[in-house]
């Protein structure tokens, strides 16, 4: 039997993300629909479905979702780079189309791209330093396929400000399909949570310390970004004229033997808040061991991260990633669950701080 190991990542398991439903009290109807691109008609996987804190879900890879709601609930449907729709549940059609936001290519910009990224980095760093102790709980699902199929479903807790850090498994199940039997390896033996730590603040992860990212620890004036990346930017506009910076970051020298995070960052043009990131890790290698022999294999790792700002800081809402190498195929997701005591403590703590500050004033 083969074992798989990255130079910076030991791989155990992964799984397909289908669709996570977070239920609330007073459910009266099961809402289901398919979401697609209004122009291409292609399905939109991992679109966000939000009703209120504690009640939301995402579309699966085929663009479908189900969620229990009350008929009069207003359901918000969003996907980065597309218009946001709000529909009353009882009026929602079975097929929904989202249209891309209008785009303007910024050949000449008032503010350089590196300056925008610097503002975003400083904001994330400030929030991380201030709120790094706060944790959120996530629903975690994985599926990996090699000679066997490994499955994981679990609840986890992690520091969630700016990036996922210090993931702890709370409860769940981990099994292996072998013919008609289901083996149960230890869930604690897996460490496939490390790709969830990726993002523009991945520098805080010891595991990814050798990774080149868009927001490096080094001073932005040292030319780091221009050395490793080719940068371009578009501005997206919604119907109300609100702007989102869409910054594309590609590897400058394709021949460089480095591990680098590339992709597209979506940043609020008014606040410099991170909204979403979609990209991939280039130059990653996995070590495959079988029958005492080892060999290196290239890895394709792609991911999408969506952020939220519910409590006044940037927090990871959900992460989806897929990883493949030869016959080794994995898909995984984590989804922020908002109705746990840990998040209630965040709200209570922030309210107390605000009240204390007002009293001093």
Question: How would you portray this structure in words?
Answer:
The chain is mainly beta and 361 residues long. Strands 9-14-15-16-17-20-21-22-10-11-12-13 form a twelve-stranded antiparallel beta sheet. The protein has a four-stranded antiparallel beta sheet with strand order 4-3-6-7, with no helix packed on it. The chain has helices spanning 113-131, 224-228, 341-360, and strands at residues 3-6, 29-37, 48-52, 55-58, 64-69, 74-78, 85-88, 95-98, 102-105, 135-145, 149-159, 165-178, 181-183, 229-237, 243-251, 260-268, 274-282, 285-290, 293-298, 300-308, 315-325, 328-337. The chain is 12% helix and 45% strand. Residues 1-26, 180-188 and 339-345 have low confidence and may be disordered. Strand 6 and strand 7 (85-88) form a beta hairpin.
Summarize the structure.
This protein is mainly beta and 361 residues long.
Supply the helix-strand structural class: mainly beta
Distinct helical segment count:
3
Within the largest sheet, what's the order of strands? 9-14-15-16-17-20-21-22-10-11-12-13
Overall geometry comes to: globular
H/E element string?
Answer: EEEEEEEEEHEEEEHEEEEEEEEEH
Per DSSP E runs of 2 or more residues, the count of β-strands stands at: 22
Distance between the termini: 66 Å
Segments where pLDDT lies below 50 for 5+ residues?
1-26, 180-188, 339-345
Largest sheet: 12 strands, antiparallel
Query: What is the average per-residue confidence, as pLDDT, rounded to a whole number?
Result: 77
Indicate the proportion of strand residues.
35-45%
């Amino acid at each position: 039997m083969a074992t798989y190991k990255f130079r910076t990542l030991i791989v155990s398991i992964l799984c397909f993300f289908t669709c996570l439903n977070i239920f609330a009290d007073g459910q009266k109807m099961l809402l289901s629909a398919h979401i697609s691109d209004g122009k291409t008609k292609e399905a939109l996987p991992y679109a966000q479905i939000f009703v209120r804190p504690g009640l939301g879900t995402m579309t699966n890879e085929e663009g479908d979702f189900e969620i229990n709601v009350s008929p009069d609930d207003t359901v918000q449907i969003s996907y980065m780079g597309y218009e946001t729709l709000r529909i009353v549940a009882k009026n929602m059609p079975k097929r929904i189309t989202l249209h891309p936001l209008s785009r303007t290519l910024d050949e000449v910009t008032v503010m350089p791209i590196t300056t925008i990224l610097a503002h975003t980095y400083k904001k994330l760093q400030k929030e991380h330093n201030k709120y790094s102790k706060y944790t959120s709980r996530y629903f975690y699902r994985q599926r990996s396929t090699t000679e066997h199929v490994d499955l994981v479903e679990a609840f986890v807790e992690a520091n969630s400000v700016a990036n996922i850090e210090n993931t702890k498994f709370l409860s769940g199940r981990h099994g292996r399909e072998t013919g008609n039997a289901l083996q149960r390896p230890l869930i604690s033996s897996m460490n496939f949570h490390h790709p969830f730590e990726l993002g523009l603040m991945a520098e805080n992860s010891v595991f990814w310390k050798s990774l080149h990212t868009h927001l490096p620890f080094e001073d932005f004036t040292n030319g780091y970004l221009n050395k490793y990346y080719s940068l371009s930017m578009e501005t997206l506009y919604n119907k109300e004229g609100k702007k989102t910076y869409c910054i594309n970051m590609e590897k400058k020298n394709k021949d460089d033997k480095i591990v680098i995070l590339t992709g597209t960052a979506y940043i609020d043009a008014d606040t410099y808040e991170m909204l979403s990131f979609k990209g991939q890790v280039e130059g990653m290698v996995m070590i495959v061991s079988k029958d005492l022999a080892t060999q290196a294999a290239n890895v394709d790792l792609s991911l999408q991260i969506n952020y939220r700002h519910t409590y006044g800081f940037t927090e990871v809402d959900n992460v989806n990633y897929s990883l493949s190498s030869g016959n080794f195929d994995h898909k995984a997701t984590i989804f922020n669950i908002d109705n746990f005591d840990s998040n209630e403590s965040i709200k209570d703590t922030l309210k107390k701080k605000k009240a204390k500050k007002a009293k001093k004033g």
